[in-house]
Design a protein that fits this description.
This protein is mostly helical and 162 residues long. It is built from 5 helices and no strands.
């Protein structure tokens, strides 16, 4: 990815805005030149099983922001009938990201929004996803971060997706 900072904005080869700043493990931008955590490549097409396995590994490592990017790829590249499911999973990962950053309000809101999307899912869950278990986890964590608005440890709070 080539970037251009003379205009004040990072751009990719097609001229689209792309933030090239390094990021920490929770996706927060760091100053240019700082060592950061490798980002997930965008636009990767994976099988549902690959998406769930990769997202689970990232969640277990305390990197929910990066897991969100895996779910976002699945929602954008998957079949239309599964898009809301993957989008809900991405929202859950972002909710955990916010909770880990100490943003209790945003974290709880996104955890509930993602839980509602999964609870409304009527089709068979791809890749052995435990929809009911994920919904219960998300609602429980939302309640916890609202009651105790301090940052959570993303790795120890990570859901079991299967």
């Amino acid at each position: 990815m080539s970037t251009e900072r003379s205009t004040g904005r990072d751009r990719d080869e097609q001229g689209r805005a792309r933030n090239a700043r390094p990021r920490d493990g929770l996706g927060r931008p760091l100053p240019y030149g700082s060592p950061g955590v490798a980002r997930q490549p965008e636009g990767v097409v994976r099988t549902p099983q690959e998406s769930v396995a990769q997202a689970q590994a990232l969640l277990d490592a305390g990197r929910p922001f990066h897991a969100h990017e895996v779910f976002e790829d699945a929602w954008k590249s998957g079949p239309d009938e599964e898009r809301e499911l993957w989008r809900g999973l991405a929202q859950l990962a972002v909710g955990l990201t916010h909770a880990a950053r100490g943003n209790a309000t945003g974290g709880a809101r996104l955890l509930r929004r993602g839980a509602d999307a999964l609870a409304g899912w009527t089709g068979p869950a791809p890749a052995g996803l435990d929809g009911a278990g994920i919904v219960a986890w998300a609602r429980g964590l939302a309640d916890r971060v609202e009651a105790e608005p301090s940052p959570v440890d993303a790795a120890s709070c990570a859901p079991r997706l299967r």
